[in-house]
Amino acid sequence: MASAGRAPGGGGREPAGLSRTTAAALAGVAASAAFLGLYLGAGLAWWAALGLGAAVYAGAVLVIPHRRQAFGIARAEGVTEADLRAALAQLAEAQERMARLAERAQGDDASAFRRMADLLGRIRDHHKSDPDDLRLSRRFLRSYLPRMLDSSEAYVDLAARADAGAGRLAVVGGRVRGFVPALERIERACVENDMTALEVEVEVLGEQIAARGGRP
Predict the structure, then answer these.
(1) Which range has the worst mean pLDDT, 148-157, 166-175, 207-216?
(2) Closest by alpha carbon to 94, among 171, 179, 175?
(3) Minimal CB count within 10 Å: which of 83, 128, 170, 177?
(4) Is there a domain that residue 1 lies in?
């Protein structure tokens, strides 16, 4: 899935070049060769050869191309490698938590949690292939997803209690299962690369959770 307006070749491709360690090692080899050549070959004083060797090392470090540290690489506009890794890890953890809830729940609840786990996995895959999605889903990841998980886990805990009233469980269960269509719309916006729709769906989910006070 390619982002609209992205330059050919993809903004997430790491720049070519050697690692910093390899570049420094090559510069050291060049400096050593220069020192030996000037001291032994040209007969310069050792201190003069050493100074020129140091200058060769400094120049080689600047000239030899090297890669930037991975965490500083921009994968999309306003999205670094560190941002992307954190988001992917959070989505993977959320998927696992939903899967565990599906194992504890029964009937329609179990199906809903399995569906949400699957959707979170799909959303993770979309973010991995198109980091540009992360620009508009940050609020979902930082605020709404944690509250969604907390609400779902609280509901499953409530359902396991012997004193939980059937009427209350029905209301809370309906609210939790309402997260499924919200996640489906977010996942669809990622598939269609519709940034406007993604932004709208994240806002709608936020309003949906806020209306419940963040509780199940």
Answers:
(1) 207-216
(2) 179
(3) 170
(4) no
Overall domain count for the chain: 2
89 half-sphere exposure, CB direction, 13 A CA radius: 6
User: Is 134 contained in some domain?
Assistant: yes
Q: Assess whether 55 and 94 both reside in one domain.
A: no
* Segments forming the whole domain that contains residue 166: 79-211
Q: Which residue has the higher pLDDT, 122 or 195?
A: 122
Do 96 and 162 have their domain in common? yes
In whole angstroms, give the CA distance from residue 156 to residue 110.
10
pLDDT digits (tens, 9 = 90+) for 101-158: 999 999 999 999 999 999 999 999 999 988 888 887 888 898 889 999 999 999 999 8
Identify whether residues 190 and 165 lie together within a single domain.
yes
Rounded to whole angstroms, the Cα distance separating 169 from 159 reads: 7
Record the pTM. 0.63
Using DSSP bridges, classify how beta strands 74-76 and 79-80 pair: parallel, antiparallel or unpaired: antiparallel
* Domain shared by 112 and 191, yes or no: yes
Look-up of token digits 């954190």:
86
Task: Say yes or no: 52 and 86 in one domain.
Answer: no
**Does residue 35 or residue 79 have the better pLDDT?**
79
